[in-house]
Sequence to fold (193 residues):
Amino acid sequence: MIRFGLPKGNVHKKSLSLAAQLCGGSIDSKKLSFIGPDVEIFFLKHRDIPALVQEHILDAGITSTEWIAEREVNVPVVCTLDWCNTRMSVIQAGNAAVPYKRCITEFPNIAQMYFQSIGAHVQIDVISGSSEAFVPALYDCCVDCVETGGTLMRNNLVEKAIIMESQMVLIARNQTEELLPFCTRVQQALTNI
Fold:
């Protein structure tokens, strides 16, 4: 039985569709796990999937590349998906000066690497979830994912720097004979979503 992690959150509907195809029928959208003929599916947070695959708790999963980078894990990427492409960016108020002093983020490792690369000494505080609400009243900037930029525009915020492009990817603990057919099946099922 293959253990497969799918993300909740903004791609949950796509995850549900994929789970239904892999399990061979309709599924209850309120459940957090399902058992199919040869797969056990778990709905998890994006951030947890890379480490669970690296530690062989899951055999494979779908996650985003920013969480692979943030968690500093080394997992093979089987393929890139066209589900929810985003940018990891430094965000400030539209009229703010560039010198950064205080940053709030859900991605402290990525933020630290970026600020070090530009020679900026920035206090980085960590939260869980969206950080845009803290800027500019409580923090000079935040580091967060931007998909369309609509939230930023509505709140007079702008991307000051793009740190990295991020994509959804299918990852697997290794490329064994057991996992390759499953990953191929996932890729085929994804063409129907």
Summary: The two ends are 24 Å apart (CA to CA). The chain has two domains: 2-84+167-190, 86-166. Residues 56 and 173 are 6 Å apart (CA to CA).
